[in-house]
Each structure stands twice: as C-alpha cells, then as structure tokens.
Amino acid sequence: MSSAEIPAPDRQQAAEHDSRRTWWLIAAWLALSLAAGLVIWFVWYPHLPPGDMTSSARHQQFDIAVLAISAAPVILGVFLYFGYVLVVFRARPGDDSDGTPIFGNVKVQATWIIGTSAIVLWLFVFGTVELIVPAGAGAGEGASPIWKLPGAKTASWTPGADDMLQVQVIGQQWAWTYRYPQFGGMESTVLDLPVNTPITFHVTSLDVIHSFWAYLLGVKADANPLVDNVAYTMARQTGPFTVRCNELCGIWHGAMTSAGNVMSQTTFKLWATAVQAREKADGVLAALPAYALTYDPTVIPQLGKDLVNVAGITGAPGYYYGPGNPVTP
Amino acid sequence: MAIETQPERAEPTGRGPGPAGTGERPWWLRMGAHTGVIGAVAGYFLGHWLGNFLGGDFARSALANQNNVAIVLGYAFAVIGWLAGLGVFNDLFLLMQGKPIPEEPRFLGKEDSGLAKFFRFTLDHKVVGIQYLFGMVTYFLTGGLFAMAIRTELLSPSYHIIGPEQYLMVVGEHGTMMMMMMSSVVLGPFGQYFGPLMIGSKRVAFPRLEALGFWLTPAAYVILLSAVLFGGFPTGWTGYEPLATQATSGMDAYFFAFGLMGISMILAGFNMIVTIINYRAPGMRWSRLPMFVWSMFTVSFLQVLAVPVLVGACYMGLTDRTFQTAFFTNQLGGSSFLYQNLFWFFGHPEVYILALPGFGVISEIISVFCRKPLFGYKVSVAGMLGVGVLSFFVWQHHLFDSGINPDMRPLFMLTTELISIPTGFIFLVAMGTFWKARIRFSIPMLFALAFYFNFLIGGISGVFLSDVPADTTEHGSFFVMAHFHYTIMGGLIFAFMGGVYYWLPKMFGIKLNETLGRIHFWTMFIFFNTTFLPLFALGMLGMPRRVFTYARNLETLNDWVSISAFLLGGSILIFLINFVMSMTFWRERAAGNPWRARSLEWQLSTPPPPENFKRVPVILAGPYDYGVPNALPVADLSPPPGVIGSAYAPVTGGLEG
C-alpha cells in the first residue's frame, strides 16, 4: 500500500514495516486457502449434494466442490484482511487523530481488477464446459436441446442395447404422473428408471408452472403448460429417490411429491411391461389421450369434465382434485 | 419560485394542531390523511359499484364468486379518492382554472409547526423523508411479522398451525411487502432527506412528485394487506402466471399494489435524477459528489428504466384477470414465459435497487469512522455504475431451468458473474479505506462492518447460483432464499440500520440509546447469521422454497432456524423500543455533528433549517478529506453575495489533487 503521504523521515521505516506485515498476511492467507481447498476436496466433496447417483448429479457435485474451492480463498482473504485491520488500526481510547489520507493506489486497484476479472473468466469457462459436456447438466433445455446425451432413439426400449429411455413427466395441481412412450404410452405415478441407461425427460404441465426436481438424480426442469422441456441424465446407482415440485404451484405445492426408484435394467423392463399389460387390460391405455409432447387440458375429454368453465374460457384453473385433495399429508 | 422571500415562521405550538396564526383553519378542516381516508373509502365503494355495473355479468369468477373488475376498479378509485382527499390535485385544479398557485409555504414545511404536517401533502423534502422513515419502519415490521408466522409453521415438518392456504398467504405477503416496500427503505428516508442537503440544494426538483411518491406507499401497503381479506394470493412475491390468473381475488391486490408501488418508485427516481443533475450547488462537481448521492443516482436510473416493465406486467396481469385477455395463457396464444421475462427484467434490477443504496450508506459511514478518505473514489463510482448497468443484462439467470433460450445460458452465466467485478470494487474500496485507518467502533460502523460480512457471504453464494450446473441443484431451493436474504436483509437492512443510527441525530437532534443500540446490533448480527446460514444447508439438502411440509430429517435444522428467527425478531423489537423511547421519552440531545463528519449535511444546524441553506453554498472540497493536512472546509455556507459557483471555488488538493 502507498505510504506516500507519510512525512519523509518516517517513510523508509514505515515502508519496511508495511511490507513485512503484508507478506505475513499473504503467507497466512495462502496457507489457509490451501488447507481449505484440501479439506473441501478430500473431506467434503464426497458428501456434497446432490450426491453421485447419476451422471448429472455427479457433475453438479463436482461443480459445487470446485466452486467452493475457488470461493474459499476469496472469503478467507477478505475475512483475514478485515480481522487484521480491525485489530491493528483500531483507534485506542482517547485517540482523536485521523487516519492516513490515502486516496487510492493504482497498483492495488489494477491488481484487484485483474484478479477479479481472471476469477470471473475462470468461472465462466468452467461453468460453460460443465454445462455442455454433461449435456445440459440435468437442467431443463427447452423443446429442442442443443446439448444432447448420446443414445439411440428407438420405438421400443430393450435392456443391454444403448437405447435412450424416453420418460414424460406431467405436472398438474398437485401430482406428478409419468408416461413411458416406449411402453405403449403407459402412465405411472411412480418414476421407475433403469440404471446405466441414457434417459430423456420430457417435462410438461397441464395447468400452471411446476418444476420437476429429482434431487438425487440431479435433474431440474420447469413444467410449463403446452411446453416440452427436455432434460437428460443417466443413473449410475440403483436406489429410491424423491421427486418434488420446485416452483410454487398453489396451495398443495409443498405436498406435491412422488416416489421414484432406480433399478436394474431387467427389473425395469419387467416392471414396465407388466404395468403396460395391466393398463391395457384395465382399459386405462385406451382412455388416456394419445401420447404427445404436450397436452392442452381444454381438449382432453377425460379431464375437461372437471374443468371449471369461466365465462366460456376453459383455461387451466386447477382443482382437478377439488380443493380438499390430495388429503392432508 | 420565491422560496427565499418567505415571511417569518409560524410560532411553535407544541404537539396540538391549534389555530396557529391568523386565518389558518384547524387541522381537521384542512386536507390531510383523514380526508384522504374518507376519499379512499368513498372511492372504493364508487369503484366497486361501477365495476359491478360494468362487469357484473361476465367477469364473476366461478371459483371465488367475486367480481374482479369491481375489486380492481374499487382499488383504482380508492387511490384516486385517497390522493384527492390528501389535496394532491388542488394545485392542478387551480392551474386549470387559470388561478395562480398560492405562494408555497408547504415547500418548507413551515406552515405546520406540529405533527400535522407529517399527515399532509407537505412538499418539503425533509418532511417527506421523515414520513418515509416512519412508513418504512412500519412496512418492515409488518413484513417481519409475516416472517415470524412462516417460521412458526416450519417448526414442524407437517402442517400444524396454519393451513397450506394461509401459509401461502403469509409467504406471499412477507415476500411482496419486503420486496416492494424495501425498495424505498433507504432511498425514501435518507435519499429524500439527505440527497438535497448533501448536494447543497434548497429543494428537490419536483416536490409534488416526491410527495406523491410517498403518499402512494401507504395506499400500496393497505391494498397489499387487503389481500388477506380475500384469502391472500398463492404465488409468492413473483406472481407467476398462469397461477396468478387462476388465483382468487387476493391476486388483484398483489398486482394493483405492486404496480402502484412501481409508480411510486418511478416518481421518486425521476425526482432524484433531476435533482442530482440540476440542483447541485456551485462547486459540487461530479468528482465531489458523496458516494451516497452516487448510489441514489444509480438507483434512480434503475427505477426509472426497470420499474415500468413491472408496471406493464402488473397491468397485463390485471387485464388477464378482469377483461379476460390472454397475455399469459398458453392455451389462448399467450405465454407463461412472457410474464417470467417481464417480471425478471424488472426483478433483477430490483434486487440492485435494494442493494445499491446499502453500498452508498456504508461508504459514507466507513469514511467517517475510519477518519480517512474513501479509497479509490472513482473505483467506487465505477462499481456502482457497473452494477447498475449490468443488472439489466442478467435477468434470465432466474430461468436457467425453465427451458427458455437454453443456448443463451452461458451468456447469462457470464453477465451474472461479471457483476461480481463491480461488486468487488465496493469491497476493494472498503479494504483500502480500512488500511491505516483510525477505526472507531461506533454503532453505525458496526453495522457497516456487518454489512461487509453478510454481503460477502451473500455475494459468494450468488456465484454458486450463477453457475448453471450448480444452480440445477440450488435453483428454487432454500439456498436461493438464504442467498437473497444475505444480500437484502444482511446488506440493505443492516445498512439501513446503520443509517438510522448515523443520521438520526441530524434528522431529529436526538440520538438513540447507545447501550440498547449495541445490544440491538450484536443480537441482530448474531441471530441473523444463525438464522440464515443454516438455510444454505437446508437448500443444499433438497428443501424447496415456499413449502409448508418438508422431509422429516430436516426438522432439527428447521427448528434451529425458527428459534433463531424468533430471536432475530426480538432483536428488531429491541430496536423498536430504542427507536420509540428515544424519540419520545428519553430524547437524549445529540451534538450538531457528533461524528465530526465532513459531508455537507453535517455542517447545518440540527435539525436543518426549513430552507436548508440561507444562501446557496459554494462547495470548496470533497466530502472525504479526513486527515488531509490543511483540508478546506467542505463548503462555504455564506458565500459573498453576487459570487457564483466555480469562479469562487479555489482549486484544492484531495480528490482532484
């Protein structure tokens, strides 16, 4: 820091003193940052959310760890600096004097600006790579995604082959349903998925905006009416997970959850074909509207009956379940 | 306007209104808040009747059996009646009749000596500032009570005290009250009061717009609260469509109140911009402008440019609900994305409307209590302007998962992260200012330090949110909630509190109790952090916002947060007791310039005289020349007659040197 304003006789001594304690500060900062980085990487990283159940979750976990390691030196630096100056430069009782009038220091300012710009550039490059490489990182990518997960698009899904599993996620007030177009468009209230399979979610809504959030899968995509929002992931481990609604959608938003399971490919195939067969026998498949990427609730006959008709406009007023439903959790 | 030729001031008559002077009517025969209320009530019923008359047949919602047209027109006429009752339109009518506007004692707040002037359409900016101060404290406490209700419900993972509908009502009222009202929490009280004083002006540019801006805030406050009567609104403060179209009549109150507050913000912004550009005293160069004035200047631009988008969105939302347009209904050719875009195009500048005044207040405080010039004045200005400009280019980071423009996400990631550069300038300025300072740990300074502490955490967590993959986990969760409470409550509200302790001695000539003040600070700082730091963890563990139920394993953390939130509320209560008691009973006199501050407002008598300055001052030096040997006083308050401006002002060292 500049000491240009200090009278000449004290100058050299003060400058030496200054530079010595500046170096001490920098050394302490470097040591603490290194320690924090190591702790974050080796101790904290494996436990960071959202875990490592799927490819997208892994990338998010990695991202959060890297960001934490990048942020630690900044936070530590500022806190260390403030802790230092608050002790060293505090006014002693009875001290009425003023501080040293320093109006600025070009070197310090330039260093700061270059430093923060470098950090921002690093964050931008890192974030972009981490967005593109894992095919959108599990986030909703709109109707025509440009970063796609590799996988064969097939009419039916078979285990072992590199087939992309298509799952449609339908949000409505206040429940999630899932349709599997490769299994005759069968519908389920449980989100069962095969492991080690590229999965495409087509997220849409029948009424208001919802957001499909499978926390452990690392997938989050908004569900807008008449919009097909695509998100990708690939499960790496089997196990149960929970789906929650992440966008305020009315009074039972907090209770809009649903269960899911990642299972082995053969178990999944068995489950899906069994559900398909049952729904075919029950007549559910025939009653469901034909599989499409989006649905207009005003023209779905099965749903339209319960719609409230406001002056000729059958918008999306919700209440498919009536105000008392779903029952209090 | 012949401001300087006013006759003598009215005799002080104590608290009572009293028939001071000859020919002055008693307060209840003159227009003021009480006639305003009469006008508002009359207006509401007139509008409601008109709405039923016009739209009774087609606009009755089958869900709620309420006629939204009647409610919206009721609000509109109530506001007009309120303003007419206050006497806002009096001068306008006089002008329309070709009559001259009476010589304006109202400019100076002279007309009323007692409390009555605070309940009237007074045009003195200092009166408006005090009106804002009390208004904002009221709004803040109301919003805070709703927060207490939220935390009470979240004590248990299932619903136990308030039902889901009431919970959403409380969440919406808390969020909206805070976000729309707190946009003026610094600009209102301190900007209006001290802005003109700091630039050496006797008045603001548009006193009527300024006063109108204030008097719209109680209307917006009451209308927003009236949503409670209709069962609230289910959308939170964002008002997303098409949920808003589906909602019952409380939603009308949301749109109307937010739009109304938007108009208030635009008016306040206009007035501030023109005042700062045109009413600076001679010698008050841009390079001598206090940082607080710079922050007001930037914020005003944000308000004038961004808020009209909100007003438009609110208007479209209202027409969707009443005249059954379909701007936001996808099935009918509208777009639910449109509302999100419009809202966040306002909404992101809005969060800097909330943050920047804090930067300004804090910059004033640290310089005074470090007894040092502000380090890198130009850097600080660049930081504020940079944040202001960039804030218009980041709005889609709220929509990373929505599926709009997915290929634009890297760009919005970049712009969002770029904001951390000018924000970093603010930290650089602080760190430089503390170097070799003589730091006084007065209460305003403590709040300033807490501001940097909180804002650093808030800012760093913002970087996590700007990164799309990390945001996929954090978006819409309690992480976001913690993030913006750290920047707004930890930033703005701490700065506001610092401002209260710093400037109250000048505004009222009294100072707040020191001991209670320190207790207030420490409890607020500690319990603020124990409340909001765990919320980052809750969000990371998968708890979405605005839910009344959550996973059972999160109960311990939530209980911790709730209890600590109640203690935080208790800390605000300490502030309230201190504020009320110090203003009424204790009334500890403050010295004229207790902090030995240099900036112009402290050079005036306490409280400042009605006309601010007897003569237009000539500014001689920058406001931050602490510790500069032989520094000139900041201004010559009684320059020789006939001397104008910079011809007289000598070149000085300091900022220009």
Oligomer: heterodimer
Highest CATH level, the class of the largest domain in chain A: Mainly Beta
Radius of gyration of chain A: 29 Å
- The fraction of residues in strands of chain A falls at 15-25%
CATH superfamily of the largest domain in chain A: Cupredoxins -  blue copper proteins
Pattern of helices and strands of chain A:
HHHEEEEEEEEEEHHH
Number of domains of chain B: 2
CATH architecture of the largest domain in chain A: Sandwich
| Strand neighbour order, sheet with most strands of chain A | 3-2-1-5-8
Q: Give the terminus-to-terminus CA distance of chain B.
A: 38 Å
- Mean pLDDT of chain A, rounded to whole units? 84
Number of DSSP strands of chain B?
Answer: 2
Corresponding CATH superfamily of the largest domain in chain B: Cytochrome c oxidase-like, subunit I domain
How does the overall form of chain B come out from the CA principal axes? globular
Q: Into which percent range does the helicity of residues of chain B fall?
A: 55-70%
CATH topology of the largest domain in chain B: Cytochrome C Oxidase, Chain A
